[in-house]
């Protein structure tokens, strides 16, 4: 079959979830293309923290819906996506405590189970914590983490059972454009016609868009992560943690192991997505270790198990580009996770499928379209701003 209603380029969490929800929503012919294997790009290296702590109602409700969808994977998709409800902690510094409390109030109105604790309660609640400089904390019992590869595989297998087609090891070489419409894609095996092409290629999405004469304003950022193993017999954290005091994030892997990386604010290193240093920097490893041991003293003497790099696809305002464009028919974006795309991808994909199938979407959701660049309706006005 060389003609499809929808052709999706990229089988990370975004493309795989969208493919499934399109089929579930009644789309007849849906093709999911991946140049490697599912989750072989940025998704597979995601820290995969699951949280709902956002500063806008749009992102909060999408994150809440994503938690519901992660939880339902075994029953709905027939596969466990690795979601573990271990709880999520946001450690607040004095300069963002007021904003964090305001966010918690908004999130509770959205229906998120979250609460705020002052500095004293936070210090007494978490025995592993060095509370110096911590102004308070937000806690979500439904937060935690998932397995990024398992989650993608769960969506892919469910999509295939519904009759969807997956082609791996199949790079998309070009988008076919006729006037103001995208009509298909070119692979090494020939041209594939499609009523709608969805560009979900992550850091490689701008290059793909350029091949069709379209712009996609995103940066490819080199992201480093480490994995540490705490020593036995110590009181170690059970939760996923965003530590805004020391600008690091921490999420458990089990067996006393934790993924640890740098959080905002930090230096963002722009790279060529096809040619970048794939091994981590020694200075980065030492810096992360110092921050980790300072805030969580029981992690002193932890063993470095692994360190690696990945790519972030970062938009000008840290919010993803999602949906059709006014000036280019037959085309939609689903990119720009900006470091937090995994945790919100299921909720975004579900709503995007509805938009593509019916032409209808909530007004706040429509602002995620790339059209907001021309309309100057960015959520945040610079690359250095709050990431949501």
Kindly summarize this structure in a few lines:
29% of the residues lie in helices and 28% in strands. The chain has 388 residues and is an alpha+beta fold. It folds into two domains: 174 residues, FAD/NAD(P)-binding domain, CATH 3.50.50.60; 154 residues, D-Amino Acid Oxidase, subunit A, domain 2 (D-Amino Acid Oxidase, Chain A, domain 2, 2-Layer Sandwich), CATH 3.30.9.
Q: Which secondary structure elements does this structure contain, and how are they paired or packed?
A:
Blueprint: E1 3-9, H1 13-24, E2 30-33, E3 49-50, H2 57-76, E4 88-92, H3 97-110, E5 115-118, H4 119-125, E6 136-140, E7 144-145, H5 148-161, E8 165-167, E9 174-178, E10 181-187, E11 190-199, H6 205-210, E12 219-229, E13 240-243, E14 248-254, E15 257-262, E16 269-270, H7 282-295, E17 303-314, E18 321-325, E19 328-335, H8 341-358, H9 363-366, H10 371-375
Helix pairs in contact: 1-5, 1-8, 2-8
């Amino acid at each position: 079959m060389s003609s499809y209603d929808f052709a999706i380029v990229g089988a990370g969490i975004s493309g795989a979830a969208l493919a499934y929800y399109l089929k579930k929503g009644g789309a007849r012919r849906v093709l999911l293309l991946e140049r490697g294997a599912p989750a072989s790009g940025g998704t597979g290296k995601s820290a995969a923290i699951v949280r709902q702590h956002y500063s806008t109602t749009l992102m909060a409700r999408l994150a809440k819906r994503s938690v519901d969808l992660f939880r339902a994977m075994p029953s709905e998709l027939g596969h466990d996506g690795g979601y573990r409800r271990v709880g999520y902690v946001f450690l607040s510094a004095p300069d963002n405590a007021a904003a964090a409390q305001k966010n918690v109030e908004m999130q509770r109105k959205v229906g998120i189970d979250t609460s705020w604790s002052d500095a004293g309660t936070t210090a007494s609640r978490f025995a592993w914590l060095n509370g110096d400089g911590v102004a308070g904390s937000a806690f979500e019992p439904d937060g935690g983490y998932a397995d990024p590869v398992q989650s993608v595989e769960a969506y892919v297998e469910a999509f295939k059972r519904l009759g969807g087609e997956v082609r791996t090891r199949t790079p998309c070489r070009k988008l076919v454009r006729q006037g103001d419409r995208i009509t298909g894609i070119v692979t090494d095996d020939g041209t594939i016609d499609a009523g709608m092409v969805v560009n979900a290629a992550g850091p490689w999405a701008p290059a793909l868009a350029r091949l069709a004469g379209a712009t996609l304003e995103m940066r490819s950022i080199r992201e480093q992560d480490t994995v540490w193993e705490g020593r036995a017999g110590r009181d170690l954290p059970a939760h996923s943690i965003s530590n805004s005091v020391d600008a690091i994030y921490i999420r458990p892997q089990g067996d006393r192991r934790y993924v640890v990386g740098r959080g905002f604010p930090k230096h963002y290193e722009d790279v060529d997505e096809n040619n970048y240093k794939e091994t981590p920097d020694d200075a980065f490893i030492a810096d992360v270790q110092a921050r980790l041991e300072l805030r969580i003293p029981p992690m002193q003497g932890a063993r470095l198990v692994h360190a690696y790099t990945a790519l972030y696809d970062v938009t000008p305002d840290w919010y993803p580009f999602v949906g059709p464009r006014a000036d280019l028919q037959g085309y939609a974006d689903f990119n720009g996770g900006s470091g937090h795309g995994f945790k919100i991808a299921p909720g975004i994909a579900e709503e995007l499928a509805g938009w593509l199938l019916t032409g209808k979407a909530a007004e706040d959701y429509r602002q995620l379209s790339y059209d907001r660049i021309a309309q100057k309706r960015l959520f945040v006005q610079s690359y250095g701003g709050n990431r949501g």
